[in-house]
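Lab notebook page, bench 4
Experiment: in silico fold of construct C2
Operator: M.H.
Input chain length: 632 residues
Purpose: comparison with the prior construct
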Amino acid sequence: MTLEEFFQKSYDYVIIGGGTAGLAVAARLSEDPNVTVAVLEAGGNRLDDVLIDAPNLFLQLWDKPEYDWMYRTVPQVGTADRVHGWVRGKVLGGSSAVNYNMFSMASRQDLNNWSELGNKGWDFDGIAPYYRKFEKYNAPSDDFGKQMDHKYIDPLLRGTDGPVQTELQWNQEVWPKTCLNAGYPYPNDPRTGSAIGGFNQLVTVDPKTVRRSYAARAYYEPNAGRPNLSLLTEALVEKIELDKTGSGDAVATGVRFQVNGTSYLVRANKEVIVSGGVINSPQILELSGIGGSDVLKNAGVDVLVDNPNVGENLNDHTAVAVTLQVKDEYPTAEVLLRNPEIQQQAMEAYLTHKVGPFANAPTTTGFASVDLVDPDLKNAGEHIASLVSEFKTTNPKADPAGRNDILARQLKSPKEAVTQMVCLTVGADPRKVGEPSQIFIHDSPGNFVIVGACSTRSLSRGSIHIESSDPSKHPRIDPNYYAHPLDLDMAARTVLHAFKLARTEPLLSHLKLGENGDVIIHSSWGKKEPKTLEEAKEFASQNTATEYHPIGTCAMLPKEKGGVVDTELRVYGTKNIRVIDASIFPTHVQGNIVSLVYAVAERAADIIKGKVANGTIVNGNGVNGHVANGLP
């Protein structure tokens, strides 16, 4: 849409951000022909771009300004003072256009935590129907199904006609068998509320087209012709225009944005919806005068709504890369990365026949409880509680909502995961975490796999704040990795667990061993395999990267407990501004978060449309044909 066309209409809702959540909300609100919706997206429309469509070409998108915001953190004390690159999608579809395509599910307790923190209706039963609403699960064909273990998936718990396609794309046999031999139970469908076990998880790929299924493809493209839905790309939002007269709440009247350096204003007749993501959403609120007075004054922004919680509570999943050499007869991604001719053949295979390595997204995952990770840790519950208590004593004001006690209780449970283990058939050099596109490119000879030890519910929290009133200036990002002692403790134990998995068949038979029979660690480490907890802590600190799962900077909590939005996602101190994206998550959840972002967006759209009242789905409002609990 051109600027001229965009301004020929008036809009009830102006949505800032055409990403994962923003496009889902726009599609649902515009189902009502009497409502007009405008979407402002800073990136471009790249539908039909093969680099996005191909399920396993996402590394080609990273660190490219036409796809990626290319954010960088401040140096992290907990990770050897390293700067971490944070890939965030600057393109229509947002980060759903640039992620790994891996598709996880929060546990029942993950979401019940939200309700316990004061968010009525945002528990597992309140959100489960919306997982089903956005999903279309594609069961494997009969012939394909015979070749793979997909019995853990219960089709009755899955969506059947949603816009986002999911499938079990291929069967990696070594990983699930290794997990079973290591003592993991056979998994249940994560939709039951628990995902303990090792398995090949679903991916967001359309099996008919073998293309990435993401927000632009799933929510925008089918509805692009609606006369009441308008999209303007390459439009950088400057701020929300607020009317703050008297002592009442501020009223959003419109959104000011730039196109090619020229500033424009679009009016919002009803609401402004901020869906910029964990980084952009707090940035936009602060640029608009909503935030902590000290932050705003230092950036040269007038304070209109004083809330120091904006931009706080940043929480991310960490991933520790245990990179091990495999036997020469097992080709890994190094073969592709080092040989342009093979790369070209793989590309031609995808373009011509939709087959080959670029057609397959990563699938291997495993969720392990503390007793699986470290069965020798006696009194694990007391150990976890003591580290949480120690932190509380030295940081009494760090957690006014009481989240750490809730998370500690959860991490003690044998039904809850303290780690997500991921196996990737490629090596990594963690020294390159500042340049995400380069992490998997290394000069060590041979082929490698990564056994990634990933956090599920980190207790360390950081912040994102503006340092300038210029919207083109990136905010200061400080995830504060390993600031909480429990995070590093659990990371170290999962590192030791990763090496235990490496010595478990059938994975062990695929690894190259040294003269002494030890596994061969990637040369970037430069030391022997860690054997003690302290050695594993050093390993974790030196080999940690982000999982690209940041949450929490506009947390849904009571304001006095650190909140930015209420249970209807309305920004405190305003009448008609909502935030809808991962920044509202009050606590983290296990696994890849794109599925929960879609579910939150779907529920938020129903809230706006009046289909959820007092936290409860209105009686008779079917969600994907199912009653409110979402489970048969």
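Observations: The chain is about 25% helix and 15% strand. The CA atoms of residues 316 and 549 lie 5 Å apart.
Next step: discuss at group meeting.
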